UniProtKB/TrEMBL annotation:
Stretch forming the signal peptide: 1-26
Species for this entry: Sphingomonas koreensis
Protein name, per record: Methyltransferase domain-containing protein
Domain named Methyltransferase: residues: 58-142
GO biological process: methylation
Record keyword Signal present: yes
Pfam families in alphabetical order: Methyltransf_25 (PF13649)
Keywords: Methyltransferase, S-adenosyl-L-methionine, Signal, Transferase
């Protein structure tokens, strides 16, 4: 875990501690707390993510690069984002020693500004308030179906899809949901239309079809299914459409 400091402490001769604000640039140069994730937990996080060969992993606060290197050994590509220049250099050196440079690389950057749009998996070992601040970015930038894996800390009111104890450590997994909430015009297999209204909070969904409750709704990434009118509806949520086998819906809100 490596976090940028926003305030620096100085020990005075009187024994008092003065807390002084520093600029964002100075914070990049400051010492940062770093707590490495145990190797057993690293491997468990990647197992929990279901990381596949060819997928893209981004590790925010990558420290010595152990998570990106472990991902590269599984034939994924990985990017480590770290604010500490010394840790970035160490991660690059260890990666060269293992011959993994083609699949794992490291940048010195701010985890709040780096793009997450091409990530299949994002891994974190940060702090609760940092996770909370990152949550809107994870939800808005990551594609539906991408996974977020956090060592030790959760995401506040975003409930995890899975929680495990690995080597006595808490590990959490979330699947990024598509934006399904809103009003849709559903076209049935026979060509008739109906009003589909979906209420959404993260991956929890409910709704109505022509004013009657839908049953057993479930949203996993972009995959959405529910039961209504005695029939099962399964489809994939896009930006403005839901595409099913013999039905579809268009967003109207």
């Amino acid at each position: 875990m490596a976090l940028p400091l926003t305030r620096r402490t100085f020990l005075l001769g009187t024994g008092c501690i003065l807390i002084a604000p520093v600029t964002a640039h100075a914070a990049k140069e400051a010492d940062v707390p770093y707590v490495p994730t145990p190797i057993e937990v690293v491997e468990g996080m990647l197992d929990m993510a279901g990381l596949k060969a060819g997928e893209r992993l981004i590790d925010l606060g990558s420290g010595d690069g152990r998570i990106p290197r472990a991902a590269a050994r599984r034939s994924a590509t990985a990017l480590g984002v770290e604010i500490d220049a010394g840790l970035v250099a160490r991660a690059r050196s260890l990666t060269r020693l293992e011959g993994l440079e083609e699949r794992a690389r490291f940048v010195r950057d701010d985890l709040f500004t780096v793009s997450l749009r091409d990530a299949d998996v994002v891994t974190l070992y940060l702090l609760p308030d940092v996770n909370e601040r990152l949550k809107p970015k994870l939800l808005s930038e990551m594609k539906p179906g991408a996974r977020v894996i956090s060592h030790a800390f959760d995401m506040g009111d975003w409930p995890p899809d899975e929680r495990r104890e690995i080597a006595d450590k808490h590990v959490f997994r979330w699947t990024v949901p598509a934006v399904a909430g809103g009003e849709w015009r559903l076209i049935r297999a026979d060509g008739s239309a109906a009003a589909l209204v979906i209420e959404q909070r993260y991956s929890d969904v409910s709704g109505t079809l022509d004013g009657r409750d839908i049953h057993d709704p479930e949203l996993v990434g972009a995959e959405f299914h529910f039961i209504a009118e005695g029939a099962a509806y399964r489809g994939k949520v896009g930006d403005r459409t839901i595409t099913g086998g013999d039905w579809s819906a268009e967003r109207i809100d």
